[in-house]
Amino acid sequence: MKNIIIKDEQKYNVISGNAISILNELPASVYELVYKCGEGFVLNASENHFNITEKLYGEVETITRKVLHSFETAEGNLGVLFSGPKGLGKSLTIRNICVEAIKKGFPVILVKEHFEGINQFIETICQRVVVVFDEFEKIYPSINKTSQTELEGQDSLLNLFDTTLLSKKLFLLTCNDVRNLTEYLINRPGRLHYHFRMYRLSIAEITEYCTDNLSERNRKLIPEICSLGAVIPDFSYDMLRAIIFELNTYQCGLQEARSVLNIDARIKSPFNYTVYFKSGRTETGFNYLDMGHIQCSVEWNRKSTGYREIAKADMTKVQWTGDADGSLLLEESHIKFVRSEDVKEDGIEKIIFIPAKAGYLSGDSDYRMD
């Protein structure tokens, strides 16, 4: 039988079979919060102990150390938000934080469904605990009403995050799209102190993961995979694992693997870019660009005059430069000025595109940034 933890007058009744132990503090483990009619809130000991057997890539361990050190150092609660598309390591990072928190003696409480009145229950816990809201915007919507019924929305939890409780709490939240969060959580470090934005895998992460998991025969394809990772705006571990599976299993090329996989680069992605001219001058710009499009507009304001210059570029011809920033090179043969007067004055030698950390975009023109 699972352990059942019941909060009663600042003591925890830990029931396992017929054995009952009266404890002053909740043991350091993982618990799922549930609500039972007639009993109120109950903490069920979870079978998920967040055992991590795989290698950790990127900044998972660095973030873990920072969050736990800040939690132990801060005077009050600490809120942490992880945002970004699926498959970039948000949940894995939280799992690692929870594993290390348990080692330090902090219990972990998982909130997996919507509860009303959760504030009062958490406020009565008189010890340091970690409270996890995975996919927070789905559990607690940003609006208080739905078409079916009335629910307590995100605003109902604001006081929980910024109130000094009987004992401070570490709140860990994940969110796929920050546009689904209430404005009272964004830019409010008093409530959510940290906001770790996960946009895409870095070239270093892709290279290390491929080196560890690709067959020796296929490691020559790592530069091609890095180039693909720089082009796709939300390139994730899910995509990378799928690519490696195809390459290792069927001994095919990257293009053949992509032709059957559910991976599409034809989505706008944020890039900073520098235009290099044959005269030696350079111009810079930023925009959301579709790297799978043959005719894509690249625009910039000329520094000397403010004059708007526009070129058409074949984005399917970009190549990874080999640099760790994931920069892409487009040579002059794939770039054409739109206006004839621009061509006469100066010619373009190349354009370098660098993936920008401006967030994931689905290609909706309402969010285009010029």
What would a concise description of this structure say?
This protein is an alpha/beta fold. Helix content is 25%, strand content 28%.
Compute the separation of the termini in Å.
59 Å
Overall structural class, as computed from helix and strand content, comes to alpha/beta
Beta strand %: 25-35%
Largest sheet: 10 strands, mixed
The CATH H-level superfamily of the largest domain is: P-loop containing nucleotide triphosphate hydrolases
The coarse overall form would be elongated
CA radius of gyration: 25 Å
The DSSP helix count reads 10
Mean pLDDT: 84
Tell me the number of structural domains.
3
CATH class of the largest domain: Alpha Beta
Write down the CATH topology of the largest domain.
Rossmann fold
Strand order of the largest sheet: 3-2-1-5-4-7-8-9-6-10
CATH architecture of the largest domain, by name, is 3-Layer(aba) Sandwich
Order of helices and strands: EEEEEHEHEHEHHEEHHHHEEEEEEEHE
Number of strands: 18
Low-confidence stretches: 144-148, 359-370
The share of residues in helices is 10-25%
